[in-house]
Design goal:
Elements: E1 2-4, H1 9-17, E2 21-23, H2 30-39, H3 54-66, H4 68-83, H5 86-102
Parallel strand pairs: 1-2
Helix pairs in contact: 1-4
């Protein structure tokens, strides 16, 4: 389980590792990633930092470490992400895009 503010890098690291996230967004893109992780079922509902309490934070932590379905989904997403060759996929997309204009 990881707990973080939800900027794009920490959720990506948690997903890649295959563990649930507890996210406390402050602003920027953090609410988006917190909501996305929650909707995927690989993290708890985001708790805005200004609304963070010992009670709701400890409840979220407990959920992240005890919800077996969430842990299983997080592990599956982690496996998929680790197995994906993102660099090769990006190269293919760029080459396909450029091929539209330079063939």
């Amino acid at each position: 389980m990881v707990s973080h503010e939800g900027g794009e890098a920490p959720p990506a690291a948690g997903i890649r590792r295959g563990v649930p996230s507890v996210i406390g967004p402050l602003g920027g893109d953090q609410p988006y990633w917190g909501d996305r992780v929650y909707k995927l079922g690989i993290g708890t509902k985001p708790i805005w930092c200004k609304k963070l309490t010992i009670e709701n934070y400890s409840q979220a932590l407990n959920t992240a470490v005890s919800d077996e379905a969430m842990q299983k989904r997080a592990a599956e997403y982690g496996r998929k992400l680790r197995d994906e060759d993102g660099v090769a996929n990006a190269i293919n997309v760029i080459e396909d895009y450029l091929g539209l204009y330079y063939s």
